[in-house]
Q: What sequence folds into this?
């Protein structure tokens, strides 16, 4: 009886799998080139909302390309998205990377975090699969000598420098406390911020740490309170930023609060309410509405996915388009053939004018600083990298 | 000194929540010898339901005080039903199975609940704001806001109430009888299944209240919030002596205090060698130390041999 049931299940499974196969086979006409784009980021866990946002950005670029009709090497191309969940976990990231490689993807957009992009990058490199991360900022990501690793986002050194200079030179804050979440991103950004702030004459009076799973920071904030800093810089993402700024204010601290790109989300403002007023955050590139295609992108995104852009969706969109441009140039979607072309791509993206340096980092690297005022992110100023980033 | 006092308050608030959740773990363990790993998710479901109810009630222009109370009751009701169902579906059929089996279903239930919540409420963080202004009070040099004061007081009242229930009511006596010896309790006419259901429902009600209070305190709700909280509360229960109600309370408050004092002072004490991110390590280190010297926890008694 049991055996029967198993056999039945197996037959059923085979039928379903068979259906799936025949379906793709019929839609993929003989002269059509099917290109699989892998996407990887956290779709579950504390950063799931940002991971999903990345997937949406990638999906939009793919939908656009399919709607527009792209020809590569004389063949009509049809792009498919393979989205995987890396759970922000470095171990899972390598498993997911191998899964994408085994599925024979032509390229990967991801991962979201530095902590996942770095271990995954060695797997893509070994298999010669081009990887463009929309949001990994750790310096190490492109410094491993892998010719397959690119990013369309400034690295921590560029961003940390802009933030540090802004805090000390523009805001004139000298006594600074720093917290990071001990991830490759948070730690890297905080370290670069500290370097830049100290180089400009500020004093780091407290250096504290937390994790990317915590929600209670009262203990750390209380110990910082005793040292009376003028500014608290947090290297981390918005799930920690929200309770942190709330607890900062509820402890009666008037300290200014600053985050990197991980804090520049609509959620930070929505969730932290009045406590967030005056908070600074940065985002690589120039403001979306200053880019010719940026405003249109935001509108279409909201219409399609019924939510505002969370964070990196525009960078994912650009990353896919860079990949497609390289494929078109090479006249092939084969990783080995179009990989050399990625570094030569120059593209007017929705986030910036994109071009890569020899390491795979984005050239120029403008960073825009925002401040939360009256429940909205308002542009304060754009720092650095102006020539390459001006529309 | 102000800072020390503030750290004590931080620890007390955090610890009260741990204690409430830990009670759920410890009650179930005391009676069934089972660790209900889905308990953290019940806290999360409580918070989610409370948020949904609160939003609906406020939208219907119900008076704020009434809306808060009703949404809390809704959360408690849903969680009690959930606790009952979890026990019926995942644990009761396995009551006489090897111990590993219900542990695995517990983890399974936890994953199912988490993903269910993700499907219903989405992946994003939701804002949980009470319809009152949350005033901060200065106590000496330290600060404590309304929500935090309520958390500590409510937790205290609930613990006193629970002790009374367990020691001075028929249901409580039945619970203690089942914990001591299920077979003998059955022979004395105690309906074991009913007692176990009541235990699960009580624990889940506490979880719902804890979920409501954590959300009100941090102002955010997320489908993943139950995981870490559950883990910490479980640690607290073990620290105090799992199966022992007073132990869970002591363990919870102690863990909260250890964490906040650890995070606050560990960096200064070790001259920066160990930073505040070691607060969890510190908490677990204390746990290991306690278990090495008192394997049954601080207030735990040696478990009577079960047949």
A:
């Amino acid at each position: 009886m049991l055996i029967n049931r198993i056999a039945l299940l197996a037959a059923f499974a085979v039928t379903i799998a068979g259906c799936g196969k025949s379906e793709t086979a019929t839609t993929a006409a003989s002269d059509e080139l099917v290109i699989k784009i892998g996407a990887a980021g956290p779709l579950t866990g504390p950063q799931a909302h940002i991971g999903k946002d990345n997937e949406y950005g990638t999906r939009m670029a793919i939908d656009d390309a399919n709607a527009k009709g792209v020809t590569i090497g004389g063949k009509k191309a049809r792009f498919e998205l393979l989205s995987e969940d890396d759970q922000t976990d470095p171990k899972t990231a390598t498993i997911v990377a191998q899964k994408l490689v085994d599925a024979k993807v032509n390229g990967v957009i991801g991962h979201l975090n530095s902590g996942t992009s770095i271990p995954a990058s060695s797997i893509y490199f070994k298999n010669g699969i081009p990887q463009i991360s929309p949001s990994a900022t750790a310096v190490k990501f492109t410094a491993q000598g892998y010719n397959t690793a690119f990013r369309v986002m400034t690295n921590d050194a560029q961003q940390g420098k802009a933030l540090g200079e802004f805090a000390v030179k523009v805001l004139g804050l000298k006594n600074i406390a720093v917290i990071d979440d001990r991830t490759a991103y948070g730690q890297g950004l905080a370290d670069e911020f500290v370097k830049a702030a100290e180089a400009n004459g500020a004093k780091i009076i407290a250096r504290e740490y937390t994790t990317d799973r915590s929600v209670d920071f009262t203990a750390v904030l209380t110990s910082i309170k005793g040292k009376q800093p003028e500014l608290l810089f947090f290297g981390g993402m918005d799930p920690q930023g929200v309770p942190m700024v709330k607890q900062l204010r509820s402890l009666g601290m008037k300290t200014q609060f600053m985050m990197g790109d991980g804090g520049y989300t609509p959620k930070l403002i929505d969730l932290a309410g009045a406590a967030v007023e005056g908070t600074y955050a940065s985002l690589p590139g120039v403001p979306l509405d200053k880019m010719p295609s940026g405003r249109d992108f935001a509108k279409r995104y909201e219409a399609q996915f019924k939510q505002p852009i969370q964070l990196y969706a525009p960078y994912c969109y650009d990353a896919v388009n860079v990949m497609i441009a390289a494929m078109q140039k090479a006249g092939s979607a084969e990783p080995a053939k179009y990989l050399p072309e990625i570094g030569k791509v120059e593209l007017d993206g929705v986030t910036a004018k994109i071009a890569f340096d020899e390491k795979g980092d984005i050239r120029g690297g403008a960073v825009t600083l925002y401040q939360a005022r009256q429940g909205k992110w308002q542009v304060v100023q754009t720092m650095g990298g102006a020539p390459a980033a001006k529309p | 000194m102000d800072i020390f006092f503030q750290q004590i308050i931080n620890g007390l608030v955090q610890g009260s929540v741990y204690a409430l959740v830990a009670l759920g773990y410890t009650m179930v363990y005391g009676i069934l010898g089972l660790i209900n790993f889905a308990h953290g998710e019940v806290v999360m479901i409580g918070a989610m339901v409370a948020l949904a109810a609160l939003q609906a009630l406020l939208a219907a222009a119900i008076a704020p005080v009434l809306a808060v109370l009703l949404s809390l009751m809704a959360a408690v009701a849903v969680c009690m039903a959930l606790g009952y169902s979890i026990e019926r579906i995942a644990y009761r059929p396995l009551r006489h199975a090897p111990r590993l089996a219900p542990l695995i279903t517990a983890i399974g239930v936890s994953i199912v609940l988490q993903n269910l919540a993700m499907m219903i409420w989405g992946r994003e963080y939701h804002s949980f704001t009470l319809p009152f202004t949350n005033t901060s009070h200065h106590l000496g040099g330290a600060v404590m806001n309304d929500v935090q004061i309520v958390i500590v007081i409510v937790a205290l009242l609930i613990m006193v109430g629970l002790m009374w229930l367990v020691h001075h009511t028929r249901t409580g006596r039945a619970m203690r009888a089942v914990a001591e010896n299920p077979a003998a309790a059955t022979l004395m006419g105690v309906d074991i299944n009913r007692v176990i259901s009541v235990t699960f429902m009580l624990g889940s009600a506490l979880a719902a209240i804890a979920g409501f209070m954590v959300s009100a305190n941090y102002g955010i709700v997320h489908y993943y919030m139950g995981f870490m909280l559950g883990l910490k509360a479980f640690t607290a229960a073990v620290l105090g002596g799992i199966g022992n109600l007073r132990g869970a309370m002591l363990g919870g408050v102690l863990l909260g205090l250890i964490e906040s004092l650890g995070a606050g002072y560990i960096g200064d004490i070790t001259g920066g060698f160990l930073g505040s991110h070691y607060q969890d390590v510190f908490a677990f280190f204390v746990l290991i130390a306690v278990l090495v010297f008192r394997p049954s926890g601080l207030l735990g008694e040696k478990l009577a041999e079960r047949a």
Q: What stands out?
A: The interface with chain B takes residues 43-46, 48-49, 51-52, 182, 207-211, 213-216, 218-220, 222-223, 225-226, 238-239, 242-243, 246, 250-252, 267, 270-273, 307, 310 of chain A (CB under 8 Å).
